[in-house]
Amino acid sequence: MNVDVVVVGGGAMGSAAAWQVARSGKSVVLLEQFEEGHKIGASHGATRNFNTAYAEADYLDLLAESRNLWDELAEETGTQLLDLVGLANHGNVAKLRTVREAHEERGIESHFLSAAEAAERWQGMNFRGDVLFVPGSGRVRAAEALRALRAAAEARGARFEYSTPVRGIRVLGPDSVLVETDRSRFTARRVVVTAGAWTNRVLDGLAALPPLVVTQEQPAHFTPLQDSLDWPSFNHNPDPDDPRDAYWYSPVYGMLTPGEGIKAGWHGVGPVMDPDARTFQPEPKQLDALVRYAREWLPGVDPASAVPISCTYTTTPNEDFVLDGFGPLVVGAGFSGHGFKFTPAIGRVLADIADGGLAPARFAAAR
Length: 367
Ligand SMILES: Cc1cc2nc3c(=O)[nH]c(=O)nc-3n(C[C@H](O)[C@H](O)[C@H](O)COP(=O)(O)OP(=O)(O)OC[C@H]3O[C@@H](n4cnc5c(N)ncnc54)[C@H](O)[C@@H]3O)c2cc1C
Prior knowledge:
- Strand 11 (176-181) and strand 12 form a beta hairpin.
- This protein folds into 2 domains: 2-45 and 144-210 and 318-363, FAD/NAD(P)-binding domain (3-Layer(bba) Sandwich); 87-135 and 214-315, D-Amino Acid Oxidase, subunit A, domain 2 (D-Amino Acid Oxidase, Chain A, domain 2, 2-Layer Sandwich).
- Strands 1, 2, 9, 10, 11, 12, 20 and 21 form an 8-stranded mixed beta sheet that branches.
- The longest helix is centred in the N-terminal third of the chain and has 21 residues, at 57-77.
- Helices cover 27% and strands 29% of the residues.
- The model has no long low-confidence stretch (mean pLDDT 97).
- It is built from 8 helices and 21 strands.
- Helix 1 runs parallel beside helix 5, helix 1 packs across helix 8 (343-354) and helix 2 (57-77) packs across helix 8 (343-354).
- It starts with a strand and ends in a 13-residue tail after the last helix.
- By secondary structure, it is an alpha+beta fold.
- It is globular.
- Bound molecules: flavin-adenine dinucleotide.
- Flavin-adenine dinucleotide binds next to helix 1, strand 3 and strand 19.
- The site of flavin-adenine dinucleotide (FAD) has 37 residues, from helix 1, strand 3 and strand 19.
């Protein structure tokens, strides 16, 4: 079968690329190895933080575009995809001051609250220092977003094939690639590879990427003690050199997942794992430390109620994404545990690269 574009991988990034390619009027087939809604990659679960507390211009540009595209996708599909409950950033206040400066330059609303003001406002949380609150942030409804991306792409003629692993990719020429599955062969002008933890396996040396480390991450949901408590999304950095934070594995992120509890997790420190040989079991020491974190910093939850989640990160050395082209191949990889909020704009960048465009230099593979 001949198509303009084949997308490999039906997670957030592949689904967004298929939507954007279909929007540009090209024919597109998305191939996903597992069934729709599987929990084996990086995009499953009901919620993700929509956090705008970045200081870097490239990320703030991508976020601003994403915000508009999330709204467009919600309108196109008649769904609500963002819950802008605000995001409380605390810990390492010096770092937050640089974020506030970047926000000031761009007119992004954010402001500092004292620890006492924040504790008064969010009685389920403890604070030690000033808190940078960003009202225009919050959560993405991740599971609904995946369904909406598929629906919007299919409404424009895209075809999604689940339980269809790609077994091989062969470059036939500057504008021609052969993609093989167990049942069929596709010839396409471009192939977009958004295969998450399996990226290197799928590419099999066809593109030179920065090192990608796959880890099994294990945030957990905790039961709130009262349903009436108000919860922002949150990011909490350890205070540098503060011995009280010595047991932390990394900064903590978190949010309310309606119906499941308060999610909290360490960032990017899970055990390195082969995506096809996962344990899906939480690493006990990290879980114990997370429970201790909940006991110390989330007085509004039951620390003994932790329900772990298992999920993969694919991380680059500096946590910058890879969005780049290699002849007829386009690669979106290395989202390093912070990609979901940018999903629709990343889809647009990948569709543009498939059309001969360039990604911002920060995301080039050769860095
Ligand atoms: C625990 C956790 C918490 C997170 N929290 C946040 C957050 O709060 N905010 C935020 O912005 N981001 C967050 N992220 C990051 C975000 O979820 C990811 O960046 C994003 O989901 C990556 O999407 P993806 O499409 O690249 O990967 P995936 O969803 O893993 O998609 C890749 C797909 O490719 C498929 N595939 C692989 N090989 C083949 C093959 N041979 N043939 C066909 N298909 C194949 C896989 O089955 C998979 O479905 C979090 C991630 C995790 C794990």
